[in-house]
Amino acid sequence: MKTETPMLQIQDLHVSVEGRPILKGLNLEVQAGQVHAIMGPNGAGKSTLAAVLAGKEGYEITAGDILLEGQSLLELSPEERSHAGIFLAFQYPVEIPGVSMVQFLRAALNAHRAAKGLDPLDTADLMALLKEKAQLLKLDPSFLTRSVNEGFSGGERKRAEIFQMAVLDPSLVVLDETDSGLDIDALKVVSDAVNALRTPERAFIVITHYYRILQHIRPDVVHILADGRIVRSGGPELAVALEEKGYEPLLATS
Amino acid sequence: MQMVTLNPPLSLEVGAQHLTQLLRSQATGEGLPGEVRSAWLTAAQTADLQQLFTEQRYREDWKYTPVEFFRQAWALDTPRAPQRSADIAERFILPEEVRGSATLLPAVASLPQPTSPWEAFLGAARYAQHYSMKEGAFLLAPSHGEGVLPLLITISVAAGGSVELLLTPQSKGLLVLRVHLHLAPGAQVRLYLPTDTQVSGTYLYMLLSAHVEREARFESFDLTAYAAWKRTEQKVRLSGPGAEAHLYGAARVQPNTLWDQAIRIEHAAPHTHSNQLFKSLVHARARSTFQGRIYVHREAQKTNAYQSHKALLWDATAAAYSRPQLEIFADDVRCTHGVTTGFLQGDMLLYLQARGVPEAQAREMLAGAFLAEVLDRVPHTGIQEHLRHRLGLPE
Prior knowledge:
heterodimer, B: about 400 residues, globular
């Protein structure tokens, strides 16, 4: 029996970076199974929102709270947030020379399992899981033994992010401009994989500039973020209106 | 692998014989290659060091090396019952397959302790040993208890020979080890210098010199998992066309310890090649120093020389000093050098943590990846695996 508590509640969130306010009273509720799109002009605070959800250092939360299934995230380290079910697909996934994808995901997956009181996966099970998920993203199995993101093209990096998401099986996924730098074919592979991973238990927040990705990953709710707050929310038709008219008329009437 | 029987285990009598031979050859210049004679510590050099440690006289090549460590080592200078060579094998931390594949050179533990540090330097000749080799793998593990042990070893590798040497000093106290290698034309030497003793209070001062003749190739791997104080000086002279030197170093500089490299590579002939790759991971209140000098003589045209030192600081109390020095007197050469010093990158750490890897483990993964660049180049798989484990790298 599911409770009424939303998957994610962001309440009156104020965030400053080096003393400068970026988020100025952001409110958002996401239910399990939903896909929310957050769109907005440059400098609106989209990437700050993603960074704060992941627990990146250097962001000062001056007011408000973030609740995941009713529990505040603010005191949790990035790894504890991950164990709690948050997954952030980075806009610019970093290269980590010398750490292979297998080594990395073994550590990550086993830390998740340890947090749930489970024993580590043995190597055969781990490899079977990784190969299965690699196939979903049409990734060559050889990439598992390569260093994380090293020498990957933009498209490969984004696919590798979604691959990791599939492996770690999170409850809340934040896609931070995952569509940037993707050609149409790569966008389709990534979107198909995300759609395949949509379940009634999992929620997605898709942060993007462009309508394009929302044609593939159909959102339930679309929000417009401007100057640190959500100024408009609506159905998929809001994204269509943005595509046709741009931000200015929509922001002017808000 | 071919096994070679070497000199019998060194007793005092045998040691005295060696000494007599060496002194005689030094006097007459017979029996030893010319370069070997230059390996002796002269009285002037000894006086130099004495001044350095007692008066703290300014010396450019010791600029970043705190000699208090040395004084601490002297303070340990209370002669103890010397160890028997049979005990040494049991104290090796290296795995059996590495030990088993090499011939054990005689230990020197049964030699008497000098009574003062200065006798230690002056007395280096008293403990000198000389080996001539052609093929094989050799393990040399000078070992002693507390106190100061000086040792001079000269090794000549015959023309076209191929020798692997593993030098693993074990001591509590100060070990001053002077090793001179002579590579005849076409000879190949691979020298491993792992230091991974878990004995606290290990002080090592290694002075290596190599004379590399035409078409000969010298490789060294200075791999440090732990030493309280370790200074390695490597002086390599490439004296004939086609001579090569490849120097690698990886160190985990543990809290409150010192790792110190002083390198001089001399290109004295045309078409010579040298490469240095050193990486140090520096923990809290520890210090890493790297001084690398490349000297290209006027006649050494078509020289290729590369040098890279990277230091990774574990926290704000760690210190790294890095100084490349190039002196080039030929005009048709290719020389590059690079130095980086920095902390673990926050964005890499966040990436690993955001996927659920606990911070401490994430830092270890990044540290391991940093040192792996050097470890991956260690050709002996047994040594590589052992050091990976001791340095905390993934298998």
